[in-house]
Amino acid sequence: SGLQYQDLEIGVGQKPLFMQEVRVAYVGKFQDGHVFDKGLTDFRGGKGEMLKGFEQGIFGGSGIEPMRVGGKRKLIIPPQLGYGDKPYGTIPANSTLTFEVELLRVNSKVF
């Protein structure tokens, strides 16, 4: 898929399933290290609520294992799994983005 990842810390908690809601802390950076966004977000996997590469890096797929609660992972998301050839706010078109994410919680309810 082009997504690159590195486990910074392997969690020991639950793995998320598609259609479950997760809470993630994240820091988004450009390739030069400049931070463009950070915070907490809740979203459901498989609903298209996040960038494809971000979702794949957390929920797994294409040979990538899902994260576990308590885990931290660095994701390097190529444009085709990010915003593609369209600019988004302060993010230029065709940007490769890096996210450091921590999986804080999995809601056990499947929507």
The main sheet orders its strands as 1-4-5-2-3
Helix count from the secondary structure assignment = 1
Biggest β-sheet strands, sense, barrel: 5 strands, antiparallel
How large is the radius of gyration? 13 Å
Determine the mean pLDDT: 94
Strand % is 35-45%
Number of strands: 5
Label the structural class: mainly beta
User: Percent helix among the residues?
Assistant: under 10%
Low-pLDDT segments, ≥5 res = none
Q: Gap between N and C termini, in Å?
A: 26 Å
N-to-C series of helices and strands: EEEHEE
Shape: globular
Based on the model shown, name its key terms.
111 residues, five-stranded antiparallel β-sheet, mainly beta, 1 helix, 7% helix, 5 strands, globular
SSE layout:
Blueprint: E1 4-9, E2 20-29, E3 35-44, H1 52-59, E4 72-77, E5 97-110
Antiparallel strand pairs: 1-4, 2-3, 2-5, 4-5
